[in-house]
Protein 1
Amino acid sequence: MTITVHGQATSSCTARVLTTLFEKEVSDFYLQHVDLASSAHKQPDYLTLQPFGVIPVVQDGDLTLFESRAIIRYLALKYEGQGSPLYGRTPEERAKVEQWLEVESQNFHVAASTIVYQLVSRAKKGLAPEEDVVKATIEKLESILDVYEKQLSKSPFLAGDFFSLADLSHLPRTKSLMKSAKMPHLITSRKHVNDWWQRISTRPSWIKVTEMASGLQK
Amino acid sequence: MTITVHGQATSSCTARVLTTLFEKEVSDFYLQHVDLASSAHKQPDYLTLQPFGVIPVVQDGDLTLFESRAIIRYLALKYEGQGSPLYGRTPEERAKVEQWLEVESQNFHVAASTIVYQLVSRAKKGLAPEEDVVKATIEKLESILDVYEKQLSKSPFLAGDFFSLADLSHLPRTKSLMKSAKMPHLITSRKHVNDWWQRISTRPSWIKVTEMASGLQK
């Protein structure tokens, strides 16, 4: 049965879901474009799928599911037997995947998103960044990435010797931090973090998603 | 093998882990008190367990695991065959548990924690709340709880007809929102949210954890 993904390839959360589908070698899916510019995500029909009015939503048969990190967990389990073992191979590996996926969501994502909002989204609205917020958040992110540097000196990926949901979940926001917010040095100045970024951002799944996104932006 | 939980019963994140252990009828665990007042969580020994210097951490044999929502997922799976089915009984139920657990973490927790910080933590430091932040965050939380009200009019628990990790994860922060921040009306003014709160906050597991916490506070 075809999986429908309601979203936009340029959105971080949709990109997380699409990358998982490619990693799992699922080709039977359809991306239903949700036009944020015309507020399609705030219309009654869409709100019956996603009551908070955000993207993405996935429909798989009778199941309607939102929250990108819930969707990628669902896909990793449903397609456990094919593609990359995104949840690891043992209960202990899986626990470590969950741990670093939570670190991404509770720590990295919060800080990186604040920086992107301050330096990119506010500029689009003609607002200056709030300098004290930017400074404090960069310091916070530096300390998070120092922990990553130590962890990635011990293993090639966050949860161990395998590419997992935890690494994957960092891809979209790290890209916008490096490109849109023009802060590549946060990554490139740390040897092991930079090696990890090279390793994960050159995966065919992610290259496909960035191509889908840049096709939309042209 | 005895599970060691490094934390404090009064901490929201530790409480989440202890409630899961009680729901799973795991009695073979030991709570190793981490004295935050003396900065025990910032000492080198502790930082080898939890490099970000926060609580809790769980040790189970050779596995050391942090991030409370990763720990509760691990425990729900490890003890799948005993106690409450906190992850549901089918892949679809489990997907819905993940969805609402992410809503808790990304939406409810962020807003509720900001309110508790503004009205409780700042007062302890002699600082006044930032009124514009409080107002905007209460509005945000009201809109989140309106979605909960609709969802809970359709099923007794967030993910369906069973108490799950998603409900459980709301317990500590909702308690501090209602008691410490003195905002019970956010819950009690919504019929279905209030019924749900009565249903989940009277579970023996949670009562045990609140008793452990109030024993410490005496």
Protein 2
Amino acid sequence: MTVAGKLRAAIVGSTGYGGVELIRLLQNHPDIEITSVISSSSAGEPIELGFPHLTGIVERKLDGVEPAEIAGRADVVFTATPSGVSAKLVPQLLEAGLKVVDLSGDFRLKDGAEYEQWYKHTAPPAEYLEQAVYGLCEVYGERAAGVDFISNPGCYPTATLLGLIPAVEAGWIKPESIIIDAKSGISGAGRGVNLGVHYAELNENFKAYKVNKHQHIPEIEQVLTDVSGEKVTVTFTTHLVPMTRGIMSTMYAGMNGAYSEQDFVELYRKYYSGRSFVRIREAGVLPATKEVSGSNYCDIGFSADARTGRVTIVSVIDNIVKGAAGQAIQNLNLMMGWEETRGLGYTPVYP
Amino acid sequence: MTVAGKLRAAIVGSTGYGGVELIRLLQNHPDIEITSVISSSSAGEPIELGFPHLTGIVERKLDGVEPAEIAGRADVVFTATPSGVSAKLVPQLLEAGLKVVDLSGDFRLKDGAEYEQWYKHTAPPAEYLEQAVYGLCEVYGERAAGVDFISNPGCYPTATLLGLIPAVEAGWIKPESIIIDAKSGISGAGRGVNLGVHYAELNENFKAYKVNKHQHIPEIEQVLTDVSGEKVTVTFTTHLVPMTRGIMSTMYAGMNGAYSEQDFVELYRKYYSGRSFVRIREAGVLPATKEVSGSNYCDIGFSADARTGRVTIVSVIDNIVKGAAGQAIQNLNLMMGWEETRGLGYTPVYP
Amino acid sequence: MTVAGKLRAAIVGSTGYGGVELIRLLQNHPDIEITSVISSSSAGEPIELGFPHLTGIVERKLDGVEPAEIAGRADVVFTATPSGVSAKLVPQLLEAGLKVVDLSGDFRLKDGAEYEQWYKHTAPPAEYLEQAVYGLCEVYGERAAGVDFISNPGCYPTATLLGLIPAVEAGWIKPESIIIDAKSGISGAGRGVNLGVHYAELNENFKAYKVNKHQHIPEIEQVLTDVSGEKVTVTFTTHLVPMTRGIMSTMYAGMNGAYSEQDFVELYRKYYSGRSFVRIREAGVLPATKEVSGSNYCDIGFSADARTGRVTIVSVIDNIVKGAAGQAIQNLNLMMGWEETRGLGYTPVYP
Amino acid sequence: MTVAGKLRAAIVGSTGYGGVELIRLLQNHPDIEITSVISSSSAGEPIELGFPHLTGIVERKLDGVEPAEIAGRADVVFTATPSGVSAKLVPQLLEAGLKVVDLSGDFRLKDGAEYEQWYKHTAPPAEYLEQAVYGLCEVYGERAAGVDFISNPGCYPTATLLGLIPAVEAGWIKPESIIIDAKSGISGAGRGVNLGVHYAELNENFKAYKVNKHQHIPEIEQVLTDVSGEKVTVTFTTHLVPMTRGIMSTMYAGMNGAYSEQDFVELYRKYYSGRSFVRIREAGVLPATKEVSGSNYCDIGFSADARTGRVTIVSVIDNIVKGAAGQAIQNLNLMMGWEETRGLGYTPVYP
């Protein structure tokens, strides 16, 4: 079942940013071997044609998307495919006996109707929505052990939920007061071309988009509702920052008591005890996106304001690593019963 | 009193970003002549030594800061000086019979004790705090006519207050619920050098700073309190965007009714009727910072969310123009009884 | 023939970067009124739909491209159209009695065969190639007076030729030794969308393109051959810089004598005497692109190296202003017999 | 002598960009253990105070610079110190029995007088200049085996020399015709603060600096003279690109024959046969800086121009990796007799 004792992995969507990041990160994983890089649009081409940085690193040509063939070459598949594509493909891969970590958003919402409302695609069959384990590792990691199918969280929800859950679960903040002001680098928009990603339109520019309409809203609400035990509705705004990588979620909530920054630091450090990839900063210190760039870390800091009774929580990730490819590998590690940090020991690239 | 029928202007702090922007904008003002560019640190040098872009445009050498000499050369002085410096200098300039538009923050807060708490400098004498007209043109413009001394608003307060005041005044939003998530380009930090403005530290980076501690907080609260008639306390966060110019204020507030985006558009268009520099976008359209870059515009858009009962207001300016030098000239226009747009007909530079 | 005594101008290609820059710059021209903004692809739409920064500035809707209609509305037409389009359109506009300043490259090469080799389009009729005056203002400005048709120079040739011509004409450098290493901001690639202008592909990246193949090579060679009286062949490399605006041409040539930097400064200052838009820096000082950003200046500096017997000449412009829209207006000024600086008094935007 | 069988390494200059990059890269080296991070200016502090991205990764506090103490803790020292500092420190470290890889420029020039002319510091004692092996791995790698002291090449020379040497050695290009137009990201300027690295001065700006005066000129000439057997003098220009990482060297030379791009590809592939970190692109394909970012690769491409008889060679590296910390580790690998790629298997970070 393995090549030289390694788990064989295929990557569908190898010509997107999530796909090439999986390739980068998996180069140094001691227990995984990439045996197929797959692209429906560029099958037959060498991957270095579109991604010259992989010259001499990935020699194999791009394969096409044939579930049966994939099953012959791989044990696990990462599906870094657009929304709507995974909905159809993943069931076939699972039927073929493959393990799947899905990086699209197709299996994150448990309610198919809600999916269709926000994503504007036909929902996958309910049984697969049911089967999918939502892979927010530091919160639901124990559910991943031994399963065959993980739905990898969205980039914004990862930064946001890791920043909110300990306080929500502890009852320290009022769920109905939560406002999330999120900012992302441009790589989050993917490699597709349109005026919205034109350099001259984005450089020296800061813009809001999809305000109150982003498909990550129901994902965040679903988890906060699960954690808090009550229906949570949030205000969520997304902005584009003129940079390539990085997400910051700046979150506001009314506090249920006079908690200090030190209180939050201790609460969160306890909650994330033993989880290497979440780093809680000292009281009064807020993280910046570059401090996690290229790595799988999520860094969190706090400002508690006695004047207003509100806490401001700042959470940062690299959107392509912890927000996509890195957490997907972390999930596979958990599925396989390996240490979650395996092959992910990347120090942030600074500066 | 004038050179060739023009008002003679001096600029103190000509080697800061606010100062050179005053120089740029005043080149095309039909009724103002720059007769002195002043810098305490570089007196005697040609300005093009530090600012080669002014080669052949400003031939005069930098003058020193001597109120009596300034009074001999100018009718009006723009003080683009650091906090703490204006506090001492402006009274002398006023005593010397000069008109003053002050771009520092020293005369914005009416309460000297509050100034000292937030600014950590000794407050100016109370009579000058009293005398200073807070020059938020589209709100307090009528107070500027004929006066000798204007305190020019801060960059963040300009974007924020223009975005909030019509709704606060109309009673459409709950003042106690206001949360302001603001973002600024790096030029806002000034031309001083420290690790915090190092290119390699800021590029590809997004960071929060001075959270709940920024000296613009009391300025915003003072005006909102004035407008609403009740004591207003806000949550205010500032972030640095890896770009040179531009501020976006993303503002959140609970609504007192089921107002639509179109309702807000109409309310604001009515409020700012006749004021050329505030542009209210169509319902559902949000402005980006580049759309006002290099110009004196403040553009505002809305997203009203029935799910949460909150409105999100987005307001953008060029921090050095409408947030500093441009509004200062607009204030001078109002002081002199000229049209507020005089000499400020700059179309945004795009892309 | 004029509106309120002003020359009526139409802009074809108003939805490209050259077109909107013409709109920006013409707002402050005292003798020109824009009476038609034209776009074949977006006719009937308000221009602010695609360019929100023009909200409230240009109220008129986009017109279609009909030469007869244009002739009824305008006296002069700026054609900021892609290569191949102007070749067909300009003859019709001239036949309709309009003055034309063409910003495409279609009429720059006098030899139609050479045009077809480098541009891969059918050349315009020879009589129009003949008629077109090559509008490098500071070199051929006197030829523009009173003519009806100007072919506006390319962005790279403008920076390059202004930097080389005085030395070539004086015989100080060896024409056969000229090597031009040019760098441009991304706006030079236009507003069309493709992977080559994707933000995430260009940001934090520096790349060479069209090396030895750029269509501006024959344009540069044609002029240097004209100026030197001998056939000149140059090595010319173009690179993309992760910024929006600006071109730098770094030029190398063997010297025919032991000239100092001061010698070059004096030679060039004499050559460009009376021409406001070319600024020759002091000996040993080299200009940077930001020092001309948003303005019509071309700044030039020198490093003469006794060790190698070569001079390095650095020339910078804003590619959309002096490299396109600004020089086009300068050319119209010259055609009309006005001062060349008319309406172009824009101080560089710094920082 | 080792900790758990690993070579113990100390890093002097741990609070500069070269130092923290050594820390990043060494995290994954299987045979090296960092046992001391040293900073003269910040001794006693936790390193995460100045570099929060290292939170939880490097727990140890910064040590001071005491050669005897270093010798007690380490087997090898990387000196990532400013010019002038290494000149004094390295002899002490060598006397204390340590192996040294020096990243300053102090030991690169064999002629002390030439060093003093270009660096403006007192030269190190001649015996150490003599002892230092110039560690351009792919060219002089065999000299590194078993030695105690390597002088790590400069960033510009690394990109430039790897791009020129095969052609010079083969006699395909004329050494006296070589012109090097080099461009670097801002991190090359180091972490020191001055107006020259201010974000607002560099962003949206492209500038030349130290033209014909850069201290890397004699380093390049020394090696080309060694390789060609004749005294070589080059024209060398350096520019700053508004990005953090990356160097491109665009090199021009007259050819001694009618060589094609394919000829160059084959010549270079043969020269660098077996060296993983130099990647020669296909004929007609030129590399961009982002394609090697974060990695130890040097990618090279060619454009041979029959019109002018010149070849244009483009060579790119990450200035902090292959241009500093990465090549330093590669040198240590060679000193120790290990594979040169050991611990350096970093795929470029893209996008």
Protein 3
Amino acid sequence: MLNNDDFNLLNTLFPAWQQLTTKQQQIISQNASLIQVKKNNFVHTTKEGCSGILIIKKGQLRVYTLSEQGKDITFYRLNDGDISILSASCVIKDITFDIYIEALTDCELIQILPCAFAKVMNENIYLEAITYKLATKRLCTVTWAMQQMMFTSFDKRLAEFLLNESNTTNSNEINMTHEQIAKLMGSAREVVTRMLKYFSTEGYVEITRGKVKIINKQALEKL
Amino acid sequence: MLNNDDFNLLNTLFPAWQQLTTKQQQIISQNASLIQVKKNNFVHTTKEGCSGILIIKKGQLRVYTLSEQGKDITFYRLNDGDISILSASCVIKDITFDIYIEALTDCELIQILPCAFAKVMNENIYLEAITYKLATKRLCTVTWAMQQMMFTSFDKRLAEFLLNESNTTNSNEINMTHEQIAKLMGSAREVVTRMLKYFSTEGYVEITRGKVKIINKQALEKL
């Protein structure tokens, strides 16, 4: 059960909350609980089955896939207020591919049990529509990420990554180690370091300890 | 405009038709037309923009993606009665990845203009729910196909392809040339021929002109 503050969070973050009946709202809140996940721990793995719907109260999650050989592709990241839907493979039954979710920071999550969510979704067309709309959005991002990985050469991908980070944080400085960049890009540290050195020689970026500064944005965009 | 027969087809094939108002049904049918596409022609390419919703009256479509270098991945195929939803990138606005659709046979398609479809979908929650549910289903298949392509070795993929074809047609004989198999798998003829020869040496299949016969199903399943 949730405390009052967390119940109010459902009110603002749960999809289509206003379109649920009082009874349906009760079912959801009675089957919701606050969970804490420490940084670097798994929130969801395919092998452990369905983790239900997760609302991120605080923290950052990384959603990715992993091959048998350990190759790793980041699909997307989720932040405060976002909803994790692809973790609910028993609600969205077409999810047959492998998916992993890890905590990039210490996280507080509201977890809604899949059986309760599925029951209300089957009764309420508004919740059904918004759930599948969100799933479509996430899966389009997944498809785009996989296309990038398969088809785009690494210099382009790294440039896009740096420009994206710079846009998101509204700063030319990206406060990440090469190791962190490599992990988020599904690459190896050596590969990132090599390409960043190349970018630096070309005058695109400046590299200092744990930081990458964009000097020539236009050049990166042209890659 | 559609003739009476094709209008009746909408009645059975259009998603959530019974939940549309008479007015909404009129909007859809007034913006629907029957189009003929010859075998091997494009039905949709990313560059040409949004092709709307396509209902396959007759024929087979292949939905795939293509890299700048011409590498090709089959996402799925659509048959009589199926609905093509990922061709409507202006209805499902999150579709930002490249997608191509070609006719594998001569096709008859009912095309619904995207603006009309979007208008009705925005008014009608049932159509919205079923549209995003279908998009989710297709995108899960896309994700699965890309995972196979990236992570599974080719012998496994070819075995899965042959077993799938055999299941679909309910026959041990797959009536396709190596060229056709290669195209559908997003591979090259030489690679398919090489692997089929290997399968044949191992006693998994028998190869004759334009045909592959499965001899040892269990062995293929074990790969």
